[in-house]
Amino acid sequence: MLRSTWTAVAILLLTAGATTASVERLSICDFEGSSDPHFVVRDTTPPSTLVITTEHVTSGAHAASISFPKWQEGAERWPAVFFTASAGLRRDWSEYDAVACDVFNASDTEVDLAFNMIDAANKAASYHFALLAGRSTTMRAAFDELPPGFDLKHIKELHIFATRPPEAISVYVDDIRLEGDIIPRLTKAGDSLEKLRKNSKDCAEEVAPLLAELDDTYADLCYRASRAADPAALRVLRPEIVAFNSRLTTQAARSVSEARLRAATRKIAPKSQFACGFASSMEKVFPRDVAFTCSPARQAQVELAGNETESIQLLIYAFGQDLKGATVQVGPLKSAAGKSGPVAQASPVGFVETKKPPYAVRYVGWHPDPILDFLKSFDVKKGEVEPVWIRVKAPAGTPAGDYTAQITVKAANAAPIKLALKAHVWGFGLPRETHLRTAMSLYEGYLKNAYGSVTEAMGDKYEDFMLSYRINPDWLYRPSPPAISDLKRWDREGLNAFNIIYVRKPADLKTGDSYPVDEKQAILNELDEIIPQLKANGLYSKAYVYGFDEIGPESYAAMKDIFGAIKAKYPDLPIMTTGRDSTYGVASGVDQVDMWCPLTPSYDMGRVAKARERGKQVWWYTCIGPKAPYANWLIEYDAIDARMLMGLQTAKYQPDGYLYYAMTRWPLTKKPITGGPYTDWPPASYNDCNGDGSIICAGPDGPLATIRLENIRDGIEDNEYFWLLRQEISRLKGISGPQAAKALAQAAKALTIGDDLVASLSSFSKSPDALLAKRRQLAEAITAARKVH
């Protein structure tokens, strides 16, 4: 019997090659001559070009050098090279699994390039790729995620295109091809099986029957693939191979994690009907279906500084029966000497039900998101896992050292389980005021959707809540200045920036128009009234004016007019915009803007450096876009994405601030969340996109955090570690001697963020362990530096 995955792979390698070669790859165009389909370059101004070249060749002797011009207002938005079935493009792609090409980005900046496929019914499917400057890569668009009804048997066109390029694009493309993925999928299945085997060492006996069955299935698939008489026979196996891979990475992987929890719990409570373990705060643990990573250890540990919050997830797995009235109690964290330390709070995680959105996701259904602080007890259905969020807060001034507490998990119909929590507090604290400035809108108008009417006290709760997460409770689109009393309260809680007033794009504005005189005067009047009050209360240094949200060149003249009028009266008042100008004021001539704010894909370090030489700040922002592989905050995206964006990516690329248009956009909300863990909160917040602009949920008595918000705050605090270490480096440079030199070397190493963690804004680690290791390295470097005087 072939029960070893290695034996199965060996059979595949020895016997499958000749049969599979013809189905695994088919050239569409390799730019070698008359056998290639004819290509068309879409007309643009200036012209786009495609030139056959011998540079950056990956197949044969030639490649294509493609150039797209920088987009200008009124120009073609989607410069493209495209192939058509009427001019030789293969029509039937149904025997293949992906379209791919090799590409070298010769541009000075990261480029967004895309495939677009169009079938005979004019249905389109687009795939976008972030190409790093000066790098070679493969653009590969797998056919797993296609629009409903898309017809791979009747392909009409294939486009390689860009969207409104912010700068001229130069790329080399070669070997456009169709690829089959039967052999790669079988190889991947073998790797997944070995990973399951490795992860199941502590529950090997329990999962042995499952692994034996999986081995047999894998061996059978490999054997049948190796014996396929022709490509068509091999293709027949694809649905089974796809389903097998899916089972390995979802159901089987989850089964192993559940078995690990059961095995660990039975060692301490053999008759228990439920099991417990821990998971990182940077992972989303679903109640069912989706695989998760866990630790079955009896003790969890967090590491944090003073004035910082870190979290861990306790997992409750009800394998024997439904759990009724479950509760989690975390005792006081105390040192070995009995001294009180950080404070811990446990709250169940709630689930929201998503529908299929218009972007690729791995799972549609019940997603973990809101943290239900109000829910004191909860039920767990048999066969499901309930994550419980445990926040650990170390107040400012908490002495360094280790603190431990007991965790008690109870249920009305089951014996309790006791676990332990350890908190290690570093010998330094984070500042009250955060050094990453934020511009994020609290839409108080949407609070009425949840509560009917909103009292001043409720509004204050939401504002203070945002500040507790190190986020300014701003409103980018405010029609009038905020109240001085509010600003003073916010300032006491860590406010670091705020918008005075929004300068809107006038209705019916035409290119070259000045700003309407009456509106201009109204804005100047508002500023004349509020600015003396801001100065008198010590708030003016944190003020700015925001305007012209995401506009294009048609607004440049009006921007220069109104912003020039503001600068004439208040030359030291910063002005910010998300208006599109990739040169940050050079091309547009809008030099009055002090703070330019591009989307993260358009944040280019070279242009940023030039802007800063001119005295400009460059922030960045996200909204409904960009989509993966860039980090964003949609509900379906990995929890670690939010932390990486606000932490390590911010520390590496050092934007001057971060902007996000809304925190409480609740268009479908009719009431607050009052129950759980399964909630009736509508996750769709911008059309049918889930969680965009909706990072806070409404609870019965006030705001509720989400897993995304927790990771946003954690990322902001990660960035503070880098800020603190930079301060220590500046201080150490003024100290001579071997101790200072050693501490400086340690600090410089810790300050470096390698490509293994963040290669670019679209390529970054998804490993919680790797991120925590970097935090530990930073903390140790800060601690070592502070010992040198």
Number of helices: 17
CATH topology of the largest domain: TIM Barrel
User: Biggest sheet, open or closed, and with what strands and sense?
Assistant: 6 strands, antiparallel
Cα-based radius of gyration, to the nearest Å: 29 Å
What is the name of the CATH architecture of the largest domain?
Alpha-Beta Barrel
Q: What would your notes on this structure say?
A:
This protein is an alpha+beta fold and 789 residues long. It folds into 4 domains: 150 residues, Galactose-binding lectin (Jelly Rolls, Sandwich); 85 residues; 161 residues, Immunoglobulins (Immunoglobulin-like, Sandwich); 245 residues, Alpha-Beta Barrel (TIM Barrel), CATH 3.20.20. The strands form 9 sheets. Strands 1, 3, 4, 6, 9 and 11 form a 6-stranded antiparallel beta sheet that branches. The protein has a 5-stranded antiparallel beta sheet with strand order 2-5-10-7-8, with no helix packed on it. A 5-stranded antiparallel beta sheet has the order 12-14-19-16-17. β7 and β8 form a beta hairpin. α3 packs antiparallel against α4, α13 runs parallel beside α15 and α16 runs antiparallel to α17. It is globular. About 2% of the residues have low confidence.
